[in-house]
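F.,

This is the one I mentioned.
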């Protein structure tokens, strides 16, 4: 096997067969069918769809990212049934991962929030597939046409499977090394963060934040938008509301952080992926903050607690 490229010094040299690089086009996802569903033992008799299968038809560039979306929507998804997850057994390097099996309602909700171009088409397909499963229609209605199509596609699928096998093996190797690198980066981040000087945000900066949270979020955490962090008098609740540095801990300007609940603050510190998942919430908060600061400066309204 002759190496033709590598991932560089960061991951070490991983050989990629020359035949693998010839397959450049992205494969079109196989359409959903009733056989994609299954009844998961211990979770009732409702059919469920595997999370990565849903990510495949939604055309996620990195299918495993759908699990980050599912975790972010956890509370809302519970309204559509018990969250079913199992531990995925893997061989070779890497860590076992949680895999989710979604009900129809959960899958539809994830589609709505996936923001992929084909989300609407996938929603229609989900409804048809789940309906067919419940009706016992596990075989295509036009069996003859289906058989002819399958026979014609078989040689192509076999050729593609052989050609993509080296690429799949490479992806598994890289995924295992990425998992280890993520853990190392997290450890280094915590060490640097702990050693860096932590400056407290001034009272007037917190005053701007409080004004935004009271007016735009009804006193709730702007990160999760669920937990109340301001009391009836519009003051931060002790032990619940906490200031969170979004970047460097020594910077204390209004745009360098926000006021969140303790749960979100802990998650933002302990789970670096959570910061990426909540980037939109932080950007929206900064949008409202900029407007609030402009209004206060225009009409000379002092921020809460600001000293002259």
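My design for it:
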């Amino acid at each position: 096997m002759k190496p033709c490229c590598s991932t560089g010094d960061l991951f070490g040299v991983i050989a990629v067969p020359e035949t693998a690089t010839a397959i450049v086009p992205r494969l079109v996802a196989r359409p959903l069918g009733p056989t994609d569903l299954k009844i998961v033992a211990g979770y009732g008799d409702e059919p469920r769809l595997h999370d990565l299968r849903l990510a495949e038809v939604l055309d996620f560039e990195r299918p495993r990212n759908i699990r980050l979306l599912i975790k972010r929507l956890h509370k809302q998804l519970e309204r559509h049934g018990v969250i079913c997850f199992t531990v995925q057994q893997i061989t070779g390097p890497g860590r076992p991962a949680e895999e989710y099996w979604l009900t129809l309602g959960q899958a539809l909700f994830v589609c709505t929030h996936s923001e992929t171009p084909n989300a609407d088409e996938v929603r229609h397909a989900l409804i048809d597939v789940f309906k067919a499963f419940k009706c016992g229609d596990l075989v295509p209605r036009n069996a003859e046409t289906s058989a002819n199509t399958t026979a014609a596609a078989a040689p192509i699928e076999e050729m593609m499977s052989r050609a993509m096998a080296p690429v799949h093996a490479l992806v598994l190797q890289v995924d295992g090394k990425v998992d280890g690198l993520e853990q190392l980066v997290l450890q280094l981040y915590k060490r640097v963060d702990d050693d860096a000087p932590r400056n407290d945000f001034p009272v007037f900066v917190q005053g701007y934040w409080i004004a935004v949270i009271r007016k735009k979020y009804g006193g709730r955490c702007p990160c999760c938008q669920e937990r109340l962090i301001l009391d009836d008098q519009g003051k931060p609740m002790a032990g619940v509301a906490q200031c969170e540095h979004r970047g460097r801990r020594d910077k204390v300007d209004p745009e360098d952080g926000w006021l969140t609940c303790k749960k979100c603050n802990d998650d933002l510190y302990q789970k670096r992926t959570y910061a990426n998942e909540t980037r939109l919430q932080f950007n929206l908060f900064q949008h409202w903050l900029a407007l609030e600061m402009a209004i206060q400066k225009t009409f000379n309204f002092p921020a809460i607690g600001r000293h002259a």
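The chain has two domains: 18-178, 203-298.

Talk soon.
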